[in-house]
Amino acid sequence: MSAEATNPGAPIRRRGRPRIDLRRLGRVALLGPVSRDRLPAAIGHVAEAHRAHHPDADLTVLHRAYVLAESSHRGQMRKSGEPYITHPLAVTLILAELGAETTTLTASLLHDTVEDTEVTLDQVGEEFGDEVRYLVDGVTKLEKVDYGAAAEPETFRKMLVATGDDVRVMSIKLADRLHNMRTLGVMRPEKQARIAKVTRDVLIPLAERLGVQALKTELEDLVFAILHPEEYAHTRAVIAAATTAADPLTAIAGSVSAVLREAGIPAEVLVRPRHFVSVHRVSVKRGELRGTDFGRLLVLVGEDADCYAVLGELHTCFTPVISEFKDFIAAPKFNLYQSLHTAVVGPEGEVAEVLIRTHRMHKVAEAGVIALGNPYAADSVAQTAEPADGERADPTRPGWLSRLLQWQQSATDPDTFWTTLRADLAQDREITVFRTDGGTLGLPAGASCVDAAYAQYGDAAHSCIGARVNGRLATLGTALGDGDTVQLLLAEDAASGPSPGWLDHARTPTARIAITGWLDAHPQHPETVPAGRPTDPRPVPQPAPGAAAAGRTASALVDRPDATVRLAGCCTPVPPDDVTGFAVRGGAVTVHRLACPAAARMEAVGRVPVAVSWGDASECRVTLVAESFGRPRLLADLTEAIAGADAAIISATVEPPSEQRVRHTYTLELPDVAGLPSLMRAMRDVPGVYDVSRAQHPAAVL
Predict the structure, then answer these.
(1) Which residue out of 116, 201, 303, 391 is catalytically annotated?
(2) To 10 degrees, the CA torsion angle through 406, 408, 410, 411?
(3) Are 591 and 552 in contact (CB under 8 A)?
């Protein structure tokens, strides 16, 4: 593929200043540094772009960084035949045009020196300080000689960890990848495809999460050209044809400008062309493209209040498309994005999408974290704590990044890390759920109570037995929605663990890695039960006087000193059931009812039973299944009957109705086992209930 083919925007570029001639910069760079009182011509463009955003910036450090980079890379050439110094110059120019501060630009000039030259990190630190040293180290690749096939995943892991302490690391990497993608045409097709896939799966989602839309959209177009050349060529031809026709958006923009002038609202109205991938997505969604589908109107104003004033005027003077309205100012996206989105019908009946935002919002929408300057500087922290214009303050570590850093520590295998990272980044929408203590949890869309449990409690969530969502009992597999309130219910028995079925509901890497690790470490755990059924946690009281030589749980006693005794979750035995026990790993004994099918299977495979007797304790925990016909208020009547017997509901599950029949499963704590028969009778007396029985869940042979 030619270099032109990997630069989709070049021939019909409709906005922004022309790109710098990197070949000319390379020839200038070969001449070496000039006198100390002025910058070399090769970095003059960087200085010009930097001063446009930071008029008072000290360019001396950039001069020194360029001199070091140029002298270190002198004699090195890129595969395209250009002097290597053109690459760090281009990366730095990309960041400068987005408004990066001086420290980031200094590090970007030096980002390949430690990797490709004799310059060391210590030398960078001595010359430019610890901040620049940290940024350069964060983007320096790990050697394939040391890491082999794991070099790329481990390099990204190192980079993400560094980004956790300073998000500027990732901004340099994104600019570095953008320039490499622009010049990828000199590579072999198979290498182009490999780099493009990693860019699509990892770098583009990271650019989206950091809010750097200017880099994200161009990366998407470059990847589109390489991985889908036919669709790209068709989209390119469609856009080229549209540029020769009359642009209806220009006429609508004139009408919008006139309306706002008449209303006395100072605003700048621009036609914002869509990039290639965006046009392709619209064509796939709508089929035949309309004249207004090739761009959107962008209205820029001075203050937040003006955004809503513009919205009011547009919805008053034009016919609005209500389904297209979104307010990302009141509820910003998790990547700092703020804007009002709407769509209106123009004078000729054409529908135009409109974005309304302040100038500051627009800068952040384009450059994301890069537009924040140095968010770790003392003055920046003070400014973000109480922003002068009332707009959203920037967190120095986004919630998604904190979650990523948390689970990557558990993914010790590079392949697991690489696969999980791609899956995590594929979750492109985030929800916020509230805890009952007033805190919040940020989770990907589609997350369940299982994910919330591990996000809140970490490994302690292994003992989770259920949840309440918006005050109602819910299974751990219940999917959460944005704004839900969730309360996780943990068992008292810390030895409880998740079932394999939890993996069916886990969406976050944190949950999946923790569950998989626990299951691998407990392959024959007695409380592993089928999917969707929580384990049956039992507190383990201390032995009663005179029973010190016997293991005990609830009121079950076995003749084994110091043995941990658990009541099986498959049959939930209670006094005065006839019971038996079986030893499992770790010296524990699981107690089953004699009639339990699991006990029969274990005896059939030669497992030796352990004698079990009931002690004096009267409390018990039991699982009951109520079969009923569906009717209104059935659940309320059943729970009222349970409460009338002084039983505490530990967990409850209601299966979807089948042929007008409903199955309720309750795990209950009774103050006295003698009350079990009367409780079951009270539940059977509830209208619509035709049977109540003790649970008999299938269980694996231990």
Answers:
(1) 116
(2) 160
(3) no
Helix (H) or strand (E) holding 378: helix 378-385
Query: pLDDT per residue over 9-21, tens digit each?
Result: 443 333 344 444 4
Return the percentage of the chain with pLDDT > 70, whole number. 80
Q: What is the 3-state secondary structure (H, E, C) of 56-86?
A: CCCCHHHHHHHHHHHHHHCCCECCCCCECCH
CA 351, CA 345: separation in Å to the nearest integer?
4
DSSP 620-636: EEEEEEEEEE--TTHHH
pLDDT tens-digit readout, 393-440: 344 456 667 767 777 776 777 777 777 777 777 766 777 788 888 777
Q: Is 56 a catalytic residue?
A: no
Q: Report the residue count for the chain.
A: 702
pLDDT in tens, 39-50: 456 688 888 889
pLDDT in tens, 57-88: 888 999 999 999 989 998 898 888 888 999 99
Q: Which two tokens stand for residue 24?
A: 């000319």
Residue 366 annotated among the catalytic residues of the structure = no
Q: Give the residue among 17, 16, 18, 14 at the shortest CA–CA distance from 249.
A: 14
d(CA 555, CA 612): 10
Residue tagged active-site, from 4, 48, 115, 324: 115
Helices and strands per DSSP (H, E), number in the chain: 27, 22
Query: Residue 127: helix, strand or coil by DSSP?
Result: helix
Residues 504 and 39: their CA atoms lie apart, in Å, by 60
Q: How far apart are CA 676 and CA 243, in angstroms?
A: 79
The single-letter code of the amino acid at 598 is: A
pLDDT in tens, 302-340: 999 999 999 999 999 999 998 889 998 987 877 778 999
Distance of CA 3 to the CA centre of its chain: 34
CA distances from 190 to 185, 199, 230 (A): 11, 14, 17
State the pairing for strand pair 589-593/565-567.
parallel
Residue 157's pLDDT is 84
Write the CA distances from 118 to 69, 74, 77, 87, 113, integer angstroms: 11, 12, 16, 18, 7
Give the separation between CA 145 and CA 159, rounded to whole angstroms: 19
Dihedral through CA 154, CA 159, CA 161, CA 165, nearest 10? 170
Whether pTM > 0.70 for this model: the answer is no
At residue 464 the predicted structure's pLDDT band, cuts being 50, 70 and 90, is confident
Tokens of 186: 């000199």
Long-range CB pairs of 229-235, under 8 A, 24+ apart, other chains included:
229/1, 229/5, 231/280, 232/8, 232/276, 232/280, 235/276, 235/279, 235/280, 235/283
Which is nearest to 498 in space by CA: 469, 528, 475? 528
